[in-house]
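pls design
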């Protein structure tokens, strides 16, 4: 009698193969020794969580054994590991072990090893933070290394929920995360950036090549500039609240258009040398057609909002009675102070006789005077145009010398923020990731889980970089969702293509025979772009794409 059993492999073989190639399990187990009584090590448990997270199953971590029940465990890991071994008790202990060693330190050491192994370009380093909202009560041990889960400014616009903050620094070469740190839910970006900049001073100074820190305007703080920025090379957005920023934009806009440099057909820039916060810098004023459109749209919205507000204020003012004319005029001035896009004009002040006693007034009845005022708003087009021009520009500041990095490269370095660290945040917050539900109640384990999340991003980013590098080397393309051939497909789409690959086990006369099904020519070609380790998992012949 024939007995057949199928186990899913799908895209999980790519994830497991990258984890093996990057030696993540060995790196963790070298630092966190294995308990002789345990079937799997901490490194294997972390690898299991990464595979689960990148399985895009929207499955909570507590159900990891259930996730692996239908998977080809021998191909993904090694013989002897069963789905039941990855139970919530083992996963919880693994997170505890990571916390005891130091989640931030462990991730940094793994990332450093991976970046060296994969020859990642470390010049441009994008730094940013994001928030993860949590529900319920959490055990707080008040350890000096434990973060505080509390209310703070929510970037998810969930101010009703407690949160934690994740600090992430990525290389712009493939968006590879190089630094990951959990922070208190109410920590400020300025403080987080200042601490990180301090920690980077020696590393940047002793690096083999140039290293640049790229961040948003929260990096450009007076205290940060004094303590850190003068010692490292930085690229940042200059905050619009700084007076000199507005002055530089005004100065640049007074210059003839032909004196500006072209970044491309739709963007131009102008460079001004300044000394600010005691640092000699280049401030690059950037303007684009898109930014002008956004500025017009933003100002129009603000104008309409102010227009409605002033209508209400002036209507309310006509009903208010004042003791003297000066008070009435002063109230109109207060409204003018709130108005940016309008001028408030005095139309009329009316004088009203008010008798002090009730009843029909007599000639000799005592009375006093009260005053009402009528105001009128008119548009102020000059202010509107001026604000549109100001908002259509933004300023990038850097202390990197022009001989080392041209202004065009500085702008591209700043723009790389979106394609690296911000894309990483979008990936981590994807509802299909296991991180969408923080069921864990121990703060230490939440910190461990956030490290595992970032390791999953590391594995995903490396796999995507390897895929695109191999395709470029072979000068090949792959079809996208609409069937059009492209050179840079996302790994998410590739994972969808690889769905349906199974390991079929057939038992004949007590002997188990394995075969892989569901591998089409397209899937075989995709798997061939990856390393021999991954091709071996899918039982395919070697192909020299790496």
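designed seq:
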């Amino acid at each position: 009698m024939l007995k057949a059993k199928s186990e899913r492999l799908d895209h999980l073989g790519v994830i497991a193969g990258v984890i093996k190639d990057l030696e993540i399990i060995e790196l963790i187990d070298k630092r966190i020794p294995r308990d002789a009584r345990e079937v799997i090590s901490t490194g294997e448990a972390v690898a299991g969580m990464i595979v689960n997270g990148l399985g895009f199953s929207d499955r909570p971590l507590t159900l990891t054994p259930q996730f692996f029940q239908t998977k080809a465990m021998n191909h993904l890991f090694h013989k002897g590991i069963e789905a039941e071994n990855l139970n919530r008790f083992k996963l919880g202990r693994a997170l505890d072990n990571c916390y005891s060693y130091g989640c931030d330190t462990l991730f940094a050491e793994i990332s450093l090893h991976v970046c060296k192994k994969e020859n990642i370009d470390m010049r441009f380093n994008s730094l940013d933070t994001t928030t993860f909202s949590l529900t319920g009560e959490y055990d707080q041990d008040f350890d000096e290394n434990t973060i505080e889960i509390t209310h703070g400014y929510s970037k998810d616009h969930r101010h009703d929920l407690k949160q934690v903050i994740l600090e992430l620094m990525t290389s712009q070469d493939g968006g590879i995360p190089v630094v990951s740190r959990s922070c208190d839910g109410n920590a400020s970006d300025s403080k987080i950036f200042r601490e990180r900049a301090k920690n980077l001073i020696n590393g940047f100074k002793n690096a083999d090549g140039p290293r640049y820190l790229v961040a948003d305007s929260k990096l450009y703080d007076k205290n940060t500039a004094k303590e850190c920025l003068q010692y490292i090379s930085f690229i940042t957005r200059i905050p619009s609240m700084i007076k000199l920023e507005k002055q530089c934009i005004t100065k640049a806009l007074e210059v003839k258009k032909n004196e500006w440099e072209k970044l491309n057909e739709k963007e131009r820039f102008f460079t001004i040398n300044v000394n600010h916060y005691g640092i000699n810098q280049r401030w690059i004023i950037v303007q684009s057609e898109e930014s002008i459109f956004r500025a017009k749209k933003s100002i129009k919205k603000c104008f309409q909002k102010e227009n409605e507000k002033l209508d209400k204020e002036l209507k309310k003012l006509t009903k208010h009675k004042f003791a003297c004319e000066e008070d009435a005029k002063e109230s109109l001035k207060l409204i003018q102070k709130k108005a940016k896009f309008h001028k408030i004009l005095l139309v009329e002040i009316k004088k009203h006789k008010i008798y002090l006693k009730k009843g029909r007034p007599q000639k000799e009845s005592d009375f006093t005077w009260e005053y009402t005022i009528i105001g009128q708003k008119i548009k102020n087009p000059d202010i509107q145009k001026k604000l549109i021009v100001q908002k259509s520009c933004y300023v990038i500041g850097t202390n990197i010398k022009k001989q080392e990095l041209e202004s065009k490269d500085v702008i591209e370095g700043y723009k790389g923020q979106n394609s690296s660290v911000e894309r990483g945040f979008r990936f981590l917050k994807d509802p299909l990731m296991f991180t969408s539900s923080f069921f864990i109640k121990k703060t230490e384990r939440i910190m461990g889980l956030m490290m595992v999340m970032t390791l999953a991003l590391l594995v995903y980013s490396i796999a995507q970089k390897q895929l695109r590098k191999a395709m470029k080397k072979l000068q090949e393309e792959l079809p996208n969702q609409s069937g059009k051939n492209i050179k840079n497909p996302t790994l998410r789409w590739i994972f969808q293509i690889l769905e349906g690959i199974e390991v079929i086990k057939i038992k004949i006369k007590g002997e188990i025979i394995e075969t892989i099904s569901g591998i089409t020519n397209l899937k075989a070609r995709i798997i061939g772009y990856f390393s021999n380790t991954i091709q071996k998992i899918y039982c395919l012949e070697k192909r020299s794409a790496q």
